What does this fold into?
Amino acid sequence: MTKFRGCIDIHAGQVKQIVGGTLTQDDTAVEGDTTTENFISNRPSSYYAQLYKDNGIEGCHVIKLGSNPANDEAAKLACSTWPHKLQVGGGINIDNALQWLDEYGASHVIVTSWLFNESKEFDWDRLAHISSLVGKSRLIVDLSCRTVIVNGQSQWVVAMNKWQTLTSTVLSESVFAKISQYCDEFLIHAADVEGLCQGIDENLVSKLGEWCPEGFEGKIVYAGGAKSIQDLSVVHKLSHGKVDLTYGSALDIFGGKLVKFEELVQWNKSKN
It folds into this structure.
């Protein structure tokens, strides 16, 4: 059954909503930065963590967009507000994963760029290593992607480094099946539509439902382009209830005017 999942995106130490494909710098103070920001919150990350906690929105993720040290502090604050309930990603690697879980209180760590080597190829040894270290049940693999057209057909290529660098990994049923042996969930940002509020990538959502490994129903989270409460029904139909949905820039708690947080809370309650 498709449910709403919450997010807390952190850039330059602040909770923000960003057009994903434009993110190039760790900090907007950097000269020449072209990052498009839809929303900059005047509230701390703890406000959103408490909001999700109070409304029972489980499985929310905190994403640190860039290596600015202020992002770490904001993520720690969110985790301390709802200990062992929030998933943390952004700059996670073999050296800091346990610290985020055991010291800072994340429920899961989300790993992306570190899983790829200098040739932009997926490193299966790294995946096995970090899975063994933190435990399969506490690891989420982020396979956020960009659309590439090959012979008139859409392919979704995993992107790393703030979604700017395409890797050699193309999403497929076999990729999900193999990686699922090492992790507890998947997170998929459709970077080309992230932050645009112009609709979800329906073809990708349909494929995610088709490619969902056995036992991962409700453990694949899609983010990108959601613009109405009806998108939950669309994702449920297209994925056969196997994929959950995150809202960002369209949501009123992030300055949006298209979706009310209370509507999403009620959707989840109706599905419990």
